[in-house]
Every structure is written in structure tokens, then in C-alpha cells.
Design brief:
This protein is of the alpha+beta class. The chain has three domains: 4-125, no CATH class; 131-259; 265-389, no CATH class. Helix content is 42%, strand content 17%. It is built from 17 helices and eleven strands. It has helices at residues 4-12, 25-34, 55-61, 65-75, 79-89, 99-109, 112-125, 138-141, 161-164, 219-227, 241-260, 265-275, 279-288, 317-321, 331-338, 358-364, 376-389, and strands at 131-137, 150-155, 168-175, 180-194, 200-206, 213-214, 235-238, 304-308, 326-330, 342-344, 350-352. Helix 1 (4-12) runs antiparallel to helix 2 and helix 5 runs antiparallel to helix 6. The longest helix is centred in the middle third of the chain and has 20 residues, at 241-260.
Length: 392
């Protein structure tokens, strides 16, 4: 279990409740992992310099002994070790003042390697979560609405309750002519009831705060629309893994945005697009760099990335949408730039970290400079990148 995403997926299949805890620690884990790259928890005021940490790093840096014990119990660690860990936490009022020390002591009893093994066993013995789609026509039924924690959808489809419970539901809304489609909500199905007329109410628990995302023009959504016959079925299963991965990516982005600020819907959509390397932010970078990589000149749009210079997690909303805070880079250059292994001087010359060996510099052909002169604002953002992100 190497990545944060793999840990997130493992937590998703764990039970919602355990014998030892009544607190919704599963929800806490899901929220924390999905926002890990964007938020600073544990009371700090500094941004995460390397948000793409693996599961082991995240687990070992967590200063919450109750979350650690919950993860161990939910994944199947034995009662004897759990009780030993609980004895360390105890009911001492001073625990909250010594979270780091107590968490470290709990991890000595419940180390990552132990929890990881149980998580992998739980994943291997748990049936993969299935995915379903529900469509809401806002023109005939009004805007789709949910509360902050639960949603519901009505359907006449003959799915059995045991088929749906525990599975994931994605709700789309369509309105206007031509139709504008949004992904408006999603979550784990918790209950299915059917009335005398045969209409079923499908209730689902929303995993985290969500922001509706316009998906109309996205390539994968066009493919989904064909698969779903323009949502003619209203409620149906989803088996396309590429579509599921795209939905989860949008969900993680919109959930992170929802907890950061109260913003207008149009601004929210622009932020989601910018986070995903789409929309006006990307279009501006393509114009700025004539549709080609700012370094190599590669003009294959499918491999170009709209890269933020000052990282997303430490930028204001205005900076996130500012095209001066961006470079159009081919995927390999973007990855190196994002990890601080390369940067650029004010004259555009590439700087390469000492962490990149001479052999790899030659293999990756790391040399040269940006293809055009930088303006004042671009230089200011690059100054931040060199000072904070770049690993000299």
C-alpha cells in the first residue's frame, strides 16, 4: 500500500462502525485523506511541502491516537493489542495536551507494518465496491438538493436492497437547452426502502462537503453519456473504470474546495477546472505558450499539463486562477517541477536539483531554458518556487 490514494481506497471499504468507537472516525479518515494535499491539520500554519506522501508517512505523522486505534480495529487487528493501545491513551485529561507523544506510543504497539498487513487482508477479502449512477432532470423536478450529511434518490428500478447497500452512488443533474450536466452529489448507499407502488427511496451518506461540478464538455463524460443513452435509464450501474477514476478525481477536488472557502458558484467551477488543469486557466496557458511545452516545445496537447508555479495548496483563490502562476509543461517536466527537482531563473534558464544525478540529467535531457521571456508577475511566482519548493 504505497500511496495516499491506496490508503484512501482501503479506508473506504472498512466498516462504518466498530465495537470500540461510536465516533465517526471513518468519515474523519476519509475527509483527512481526501484533503491531505490541500489542508494543514494538527494546528500548524505551514503548507505541506510534499503533499504526495505515501500511506506509511501519513500514518506515522498522524497525531491522533484514537484515529490510529480505530484504523487498526476496523482493519482487523486483534483485541489484545487494541486494549494495550487503549490503556496508553486511557482517560487522562492530559491526553489532548500530549497527542504527539501518546500517538507515538500507540504506534509502537500498532505499527504501520501491522496495520498495513491487516488492511491488505481486508481488501483481499472484501468484495470491490460497485458504482451506480442516478440522473435528476432539474427542468422537470427542480434543482437537486441534499443536506450536508445525507442524500436520497427515487427510482422505480427493481434493484434489490442488498444489491445496493454499501455501494457508491453518483448523482448527475441536467438542465437547460442545450443540456448542462453537473455531478451534484455522491456517497455510500446506506438504506433502500420501497413503497406500496413499488417506488424505491435510495438513501446515501455523503462522504465530505461537495461542490457541484460541470462535466458537460469533458471527454470521459461524453463517453459516459453514450453508454447511459443520455441517462434514459434514470438509475443504472456503472462499470467503466476510467469513468469511475475520473469521477473520483473530480470528487476529491470539489470536496477540498468546499471546505476552503465560501465562494460563488462560477468561481467555484473555475477553481475546480484550474485544479484539474482545465478551463480558462489552461486555455490561458495554451495561448501564452502557443499550445506547446514552455521548455521542450512539444505540442502534443494530450501530454501537456497546466502546472501551477506557486503550489495549489498554498495559493489564494486569486492566485490559483492567475495564469501568471502557471506554466504549460510536458508531463515529465511537470512532475520534476512539481516535486521541486527543477526550477527556473528569471532569465528562464533551468535549475536542476543536486538530488538528480548526472546520469538522470542526461537521460531526461535536463537543460535549456524557457522559450520566451518572463513578465514581472511570472518572475514573482518563480521566486516563491525557487525559495520554497525547489530542492537545491
Amino acid at each position: 500500500m504505497q500511496s495516499r490514494d491506496e490508503l484512501l481506497q482501503a479506508v473506504r471499504v472498512l466498516p462504518n462502525q466498530t465495537k470500540l468507537f461510536t465516533e465517526p472516525y471513518k468519515d474523519t479518515w476519509l475527509d483527512w485523506l481526501s484533503q491531505y494535499a490541500d489542508k494543514t491539520y494538527e494546528g500548524g500554519s505551514y503548507p505541506r511541502k510534499n503533499p504526495d506522501r505515501d500511506g506509511k508517512f501519513i500514518f506515522n505523522k498522524l497525531n491522533n491516537p484514537w484515529m490510529i486505534i480505530w484504523l487498526a480495529e476496523a482493519s482487523g487487528v486483534g483485541d489484545q493489542l487494541l486494549q494495550k493501545a487503549l490503556n496508553i491513551v486511557g482517560e487522562d485529561d492530559d491526553t489532548k495536551e500530549n497527542l504527539s507523544t501518546v500517538s507515538a506510543a500507540v504506534r509502537k504497539i500498532l505499527p504501520w507494518e501491522l496495520v498495513e498487513n491487516h488492511l491488505e487482508t481486508a481488501l483481499a477479502t472484501t468484495k470491490p465496491q460497485r458504482h451506480f449512477i442516478a440522473y435528476h432532470n432539474a427542468d422537470t423536478r427542480g434543482p437537486y438538493g441534499t443536506n450536508r450529511s445525507h442524500g436520497a434518490f427515487l427510482t422505480n428500478k427493481n434493484f434489490r436492497a442488498e444489491t445496493l447497500q454499501g455501494q457508491h452512488l453518483w448523482v448527475f443533474e441536467g438542465s437547460g437547452l442545450p443540456k448542462i450536466y453537473r455531478m451534484v452529489s455522491h456517497g455510500t448507499i446506506t438504506k433502500v426502502t420501497r413503497d406500496a407502488a413499488g417506488e424505491a427511496t435510495v438513501r446515501f451518506k455523503i462522504e465530505a462537503p461537495q461542490v457541484p461540478a460541470i462535466v458537460t464538455g469533458l471527454p470521459w463524460f461524453k463517453h459516459l453519456l453514450v453508454q447511459q443513452r443520455s441517462f434514459a435509464n434514470g438509475f443504472s450501474s456503472l462499470i467503466d473504470t476510467d469513468v469511475i477514476q475520473s469521477l473520483q478525481k473530480i470528487a476529491d477536488s470539489s470536496e477540498a474546495l468546499a471546505v476552503e472557502a465560501e465562494v460563488k458558484p462560477t468561481t467555484t467551477q473555475a477553481l475546480i477546472d484550474a485544479r484539474l488543469g482545465q478551463g480558462q486557466f489552461r486555455a490561458a496557458l495554451e495561448r501564452e505558450w502557443n499550445g506547446a511545452c514552455a521548455v521542450t516545445g512539444c505540442d502534443i496537447l494530450q501530454v501537456l499539463r497546466a502546472s501551477h508555479i506557486k503550489p495549489w495548496g498554498v495559493s489564494t483563490d486569486a492566485e490559483r486562477l492567475n495564469s501568471n502562476n502557471g506554466l504549460l509543461l510536458s508531463a515529465n517536466i511537470d512532475a520534476l517541477f512539481d516535486k521541486g527537482l527543477i526550477s527556473f531563473k528569471d532569465d528562464g534558464m533551468m535549475m536542476v536539483s543536486k538530488q538528480v544525478s548526472l546520469r538522470n540529467r542526461m537521460r531526461l535531457r535536463l537543460s535549456g531554458k524557457l522559450r520566451k521571456k518572463l513578465n514581472k508577475k511570472q518572475k514573482q511566482f518563480l521566486d516563491y518556487h525557487r525559495s520554497v519548493v525547489f530542492e537545491s
